[in-house]
# Entry
Amino acid sequence: MAASKPRVLMAGDRALLVELADLESTLGMFDALNAAKLSGVLELVPAARTVLVRFDPLVTAAQPLTERILGLTLGRGTVADGRTVRIGVHYDGDDLAEVAELLGISERGVVERHTASDYRVAFGGFAPGFAYLSGGDPVLDVPRRRSPRTRIPAGAVGLAGTFSGVYPRASPGGWQLIGHTDDAMWDLDRDPPATLQPGDRVSFVDLDAAESSVEPDALIEPVEITAQGLDKLDQSDSPQPAARDLDELDPRTPWLQIVHPGALALLQDGGRPGLAAMGVACSGALDRRSLHTANRLVGNPIDSAVIEFSFGGQVRSVGDLVVAVAGEELELTVSTADDQTVSVTDQRPIALHDGDTLTLTPTLGARGYLAVRGGFDLPEVLGSRSTDTMSRIGPPALTAGAALPIGSTVALAPVEDPQAWPGRLWADPIELPLLLGPRDDWFTAEAVELLFEQTWTVTPRSDRVGVRLVGDRPLERFERGELPSEGLVNGALQVPSDGQPVLFLADHPMTGGYPVIAVLHSSALDLAGQLAPGTTARFTPGGR
# Structure
C-alpha cells in the first residue's frame, strides 16, 4: 500500500476528485468510501488513480467532505477473482500501424503481445459495458490520439496508456484502435448487462491467425450490433420501442403523433442518476429548467418524460390533448383540423383538438421541450424513459409517424402561471461561468489566461455528448505526459492534445483520459444545453 497522502481536487461545485498513488490505493479508497457511507455522497466513480465523489450541496459541502475523506483509514484494495473470458478479435484497427511505429515493433508484434498475456478487469467506466483492462504486456504503453474521434464503432478494441478495452457501443473516443470484435459487451437482456465484471480475467484471441485452434464455443457468442451515427439514431438499433404501432393503440384514448422530428427528436426526462457503478451516465434533458417548465405548465410531475426537439419539429394530436412547450425562445404555430392557423406568443398550456398540428421552431437556442398533460405511456429502461445517445440506453430517436400514447391524467397538479417563468439573458457571446480544476495545473499559465480571454465558437460536431469548441489559439499543455483515465462530471471542459476543448453534456462518458482544465458551474448547465453550432461563448471565472 502506497504511503503517500491522497490529494483532493475540486471538480466543479458538486464533485471532488480524490487522487491516489496507484490502482491498489484507488481500490482501497473506493472500498473505504463505500463502507463509510458519508452523508451527502451521491455517487462514486473509481478509475486508475482517482475516485470521483459526487455530492449533494444541499446536504454537505466540499471542505467538510474533504476532511472526512482524508480521515478515512484505507485498507488494501483488491478486486475479487472472477471468470476467465476469451474475446475473439480481428486485428484490423485503423491505428494498428501507428501503434507499431510508436512502439518500434512490427504490427504482428503488437498483435502477438496483445494476445500473449491475460488482462484483468480493474474497473468500469466511460460507457455502459466498457471495462478498463490492466495487467497486459508493459511494452503496450501508448498515448491517446491527439484529437478524439467523434465516432468509434461498437466492438472496436483499443489501447490507451497501459490499459486495453473494447468499445461496447458506437461512441466518441480517443483510444488507439488495433482491431474489432463481434462479441457483445453490453446487452440489457442479460443479467448483469455487462459481459465483463470487475475481477474477470480476459484474454484476446487472434481470429485471423492461421494457427488459431480456438474452439468456437470457447468464445462469447457473437451478437450483431450496428454502429449508427449518434445524430442518426435508428429504431432498428434498439430493442426498446420508442413508440407504439398504430394498430396497438386504444382508439378510445388520445395520443400524439410525430409529423416531423426536426434534426433530432428524443424522449427525455430527469434521467438515471446513481448508476455510475454500471458505467451509466445520468443522461436526461439537456435543459432541465425547460423540462420542468413544460411539465409544470401542464400539471405533470416536473421530471416526467417530454419530447426534446433539436432545431424544431411538428406533432399532430389524435384526440384532445393539453400540451406545453418550453425553451429559450420559440415560434409556436397551431394548425387546426378546419384549416385555421394560430400563433402562440408566450409559454402557456395549449389545448389541441383532434387533428390539430403544432409546429415549434427555436429562434434562440437549439432545443424545445414538449410536454403532454398525463405524460407518455411508454416503458422505462433502468428507471427512466430518457434516451442516452452515447450508450444507446432507452428508446431510440423518434421518427415521422411515431405514435406516443398518453398516460393517466388522474391526480395531476393544476397548471402553473406562465408568467412565473422568465427567460434567461441571451448575450453575444454567451457568458459561461467556469471553476478551474481539477487539472488546470496541466496547462501553462498563458493557456489558463487564454481560456477566459478568448472567444470560443461551437462547432457542428457538437451533440448531446459534448459541445466541441474552437478558438483562434489552442490551449497549450504544461504537462506533456499521459493522464490515466479518471471520472468526469456533466459540464467538464476536457482538452485533448490538439488544444481545442470539449464541454461535456448529459450523455458524457463516465471516465476520460484527457485533462479537464475546468468545470462549468452547475447553474449554467441548462444554458450549455441550448448552445447551437455557430454560437460564440466566453468563459468567466466562477471561483475554485
In short: The chain has four domains: 7-70, 86-218, 235-420, 430-541.
